[in-house]
Amino acid sequence: MTKSPKNADPAREAAPASWWRALAGRLFGDPATVEIEHRILNGIMALAFLTGILATVINVAIGASGRMIVATAICTFGGLVGHWASARMRNWRQLLVPIYLVFLALLAFAWITQAGTNGTVGYYFFLLVCYPSVLLRGASRILSILLTAATLAALLFVELLFPATIIPYPTPLQRFADVAFALPLCLGMTAMFVVLVYREYQRERNAKDDLLRAVTAEKEQVERSMREKQRLLTVVCHDIANALTVLQGEIALAQMSQADTPDINGSDVMSDMGSSRLERMGYACGNIDEIISSVRMLEAVEQGSIAFNLEPVDLRAVFKNAEVIFAERLARRRASIEFPTLAADTRFVMAEPRILANQVFGNLISNAIKFSYPDSRIVVSVSRQGTETTIRVIDQGIGMPADLVARLFDLKAKTSRPGTAGEPGTGFGLRTVKSFVDLFGGQIEIVSRAENEYPKDHGTTVGIRLASAPG
Q1: DSSP assignment, residue 262?
Q2: CA dist 64 to 58, 153, 182, Å?
Q3: Is there a domain that residue 419 lies in?
Q4: Residue range 38-97, pLDDT digits in tens
Q5: The total number of structural domains that make up the chain
Q6: What is the pLDDT of residues 160-173, one digit of tens each?
Q7: CB proximity list for 205: less than 8 A, separation 6 or greater
Q8: Domain of 461, in residue numbers
Q9: What distance in Å separates the CA atoms of residue 112 and residue 168, rounded to the nearest whole number?
């Protein structure tokens, strides 16, 4: 009574498959570590070795001539050596051309010694053409196919003009036995070659499909994670903005209350200290507000909730906006900004007006003020080269060392620093500028000389290069 499938031994059922995979791995190479062309070469050499053995045995059995036996023996030896060398050489591609030439010469010899067109050697030329078609590349492939065709044409030409050079079969029985063996052999070898190539192709395609599925799944997971992070970021920004509004209101009330309180018994010193603290707190709140505004703007642009179209932007309006917005901070710092006189060809650039004025240029001016000393001067310049316009903000502040400039846009690096008046920094301003300049299709350039390295010539120049508006 036979066992039901439920009681079958999985290990016993898997044994034949494991044995076959182990043998295939020995003959052709492990698919996980050996590339497809290398495995095909190993398979061809194994087939040549087995075919040579069978042909030699049959030639001996039918009493073929010594030359025919020598030819099949050379095929056996060539297949064995070729498989051995292919399996052990690191740069196995060096074997491709020598192996091809050896078997081409062997077929030419067999053509002459085995009755030419009356024999079976012509069948093997079809197999030889498959070899370079699959394994060789570029010019080597084309040259080898042409060489095979030229060799066959030359052999036909020699047989036509010099028939005496072709050695016939000794007896009709030997010719019949050779043909009866060669026809199914060539059909079998061709089928095996096609199956081998097709299976390798299927294996490679399945591996690519598996990789594509894995990448797609990972991409979907990343997208889900990004959506969750964006949702969380939106909620956090909203909550921080609400708390910030309350805090800014309380700071403003405290400043008003302090201004209305009369000085009593030298309390003016304490009042100045409190005012300075309130000012720093107000400045920190302003920084947080700028960060929230930039994050919201970036998120809105990326999600498409804000129409983002590049259009000609008048730099005079951008500079006037900055002059008004930063007038109070400049006055407190006793600093000044020098704006350039714009010509017709430097006045307009392609950008989004609000983002360029506030998130980009506003950040550059804010940084220049923060890291400059009192009574300093900030210079804005505009130049045009070809179809691009570069806006530079140049300060004479504390500057940055080269290592800090190199990692300014590395999200994992800490780049925040306090300003010259102790204002807290975030390290987020220039990253925001770069994000929007990238969206404009422009580039940002930073050159800086740190004060401790260049005491007499320090400061930072930040340039943004944008497309000029067509005039």
Answers
A1: P
A2: 8, 26, 14
A3: yes
A4: 888 888 888 888 888 888 887 788 777 787 788 888 888 888 888 888 888 888 888 888
A5: 2
A6: 999 888 888 778 88
A7: none
A8: 309-471
A9: 9
